[in-house]
User: Which sequence fits this backbone?
């Protein structure tokens, strides 16, 4: 036992009590540096405010926007099994993490150029190219995400990971606030006109991601343990997935809960489109809405943290689901008021975003066996299938029956999902 403990100390760069020493400090710097600039970068294309507003400048089709959003969320998930199969036998993952970051940075540059060159003169062409750039942006995120989590799992112990997520979220929130002020400046009345405002925003994202990668060069990544099973073909790799899920009840429950929580994305990208449709001045509220959303994320992180300290992760998940059920109904009410009050919707979205971050990935890293971590990450992504289809389905429904009926439907489904997840005993008896 003592020998294993010493090996764990050497591998994580710290001791079992979570004290930071040597390599762990370099790892903390790398992930916090990356988290800071990633948060700043993602503010330039925030998926709940900036991205919907940008696409609405290129097309009025809700279905096309829903499809594009589905690609943004779903492509990493669909390909996660492929990525995890490729990375599973690679003893070192850091170079693949860097490759994914640079691919995503290139996608930012491509979107910036497409918007600048064709946003006004040929918006259909710009929209067409966006499908390629968004696909590249999404799959590079999935590829980098598996390597990102696996490297963290190798170099930090559980207590250190938990602390890092909290610290990283704090610095990321500070950066997101800064990004919100940048967006507010770019899109305030009398500032840059379309397409220059969006092109500059995306250009900042291109630079920010490149800068974000710098910290990872200081990590000395240890070699991954050899796979328990011998390397196998992709089809054989896929065929073993049902056995892994069947054998691990905790993992099976995790997948079911995450899929139930995904119904919120059926409405999530359309709150900004609803605002632009009902409020003529909504475009000038991009920055304020983003700042309100970040405020919700920051404040809720303290609340979720207190809940996590006193209760199981399922309490956070269940709370997120019920809050996700309330937000569509609140949006229906507030859209009848004014743009300022409607900002409450984005404040609540910030709560949901923070809860999902705190409740899901750290929990998955804890339940996944070390030798199967890459497989678990890949399976989790690819089986979260509802995140792939729901934004597109939401776009189709809104095009046919309107915003309000679609939002009511989402709320009803989320209430049902919350009731199904009401306690651990119920989940344990679900198939």
Assistant:
């Amino acid at each position: 036992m003592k020998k294993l403990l010493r090996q764990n100390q050497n591998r994580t760069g710290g001791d079992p009590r979570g004290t930071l020493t040597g390599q762990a400090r370099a790892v903390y710097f790398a992930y916090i540096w990356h988290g800071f600039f990633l948060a700043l970068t993602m503010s330039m294309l925030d998926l709940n405010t900036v991205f919907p507003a940008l696409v609405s400048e290129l097309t009025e089709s809700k279905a096309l926007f829903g499809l594009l959003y589905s690609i943004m969320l779903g492509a990493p998930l669909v390909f996660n099994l492929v990525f995890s199969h490729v990375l599973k036998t690679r003893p070192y993952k850091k170079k693949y993490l860097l490759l994914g970051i640079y691919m995503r940075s290139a996608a930012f540059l491509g979107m910036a150029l497409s918007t600048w060159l064709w946003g006004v003169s040929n918006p259909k062409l710009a929209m067409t190219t966006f499908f390629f750039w968004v696909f590249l942006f999404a799959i590079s995120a999935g590829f980098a995400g598996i390597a990102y989590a696996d490297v963290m799992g190798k170099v930090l112990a559980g207590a250190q990971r938990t602390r890092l997520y909290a610290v990283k979220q704090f610095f990321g929130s500070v950066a997101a606030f800064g990004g919100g002020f940048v967006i507010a400046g770019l899109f305030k009345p009398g500032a840059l006109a379309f397409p220059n405002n969006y092109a500059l925003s995306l250009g900042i994202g291109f630079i920010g991601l490149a800068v974000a990668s710098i910290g990872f060069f200081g990590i000395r990544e240890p070699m991954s343990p050899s796979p328990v099973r011998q390397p196998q073909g992709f089809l054989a790799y896929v065929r073993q997935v049902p056995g892994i899920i069947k054998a691990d009840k905790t993992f099976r429950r995790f997948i079911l809960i995450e899929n139930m929580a995904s119904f919120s994305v059926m409405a999530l990208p359309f709150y900004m489109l609803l605002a632009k449709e009902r409020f003529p001045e909504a475009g000038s509220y991009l920055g304020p809405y983003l700042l309100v959303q970040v405020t919700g994320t920051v404040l809720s992180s303290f609340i979720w943290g207190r809940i996590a300290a006193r209760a199981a992760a399922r309490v956070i998940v269940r709370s997120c689901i019920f809050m996700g059920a309330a937000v569509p109904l609140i949006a229906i009410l507030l859209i009848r008021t004014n743009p300022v009050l409607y900002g409450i919707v984005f404040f609540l979205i910030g709560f949901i975003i923070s809860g999902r971050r705190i409740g899901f990935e750290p929990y998955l890293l804890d339940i996944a066996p070390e030798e199967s971590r890459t497989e678990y990450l890949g399976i989790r992504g690819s089986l979260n299938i509802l995140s792939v289809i729901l934004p597109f389905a939401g776009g189709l429904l809104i095009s046919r029956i309107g915003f309000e009926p679609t939002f009511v439907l989402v709320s009803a489904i989320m209430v049902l999902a919350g009731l199904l997840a009401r306690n651990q005993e119920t989940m344990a008896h679900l198939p």
The chain has 21 helices and no strands. The chain has one domain: 21-218+234-428.
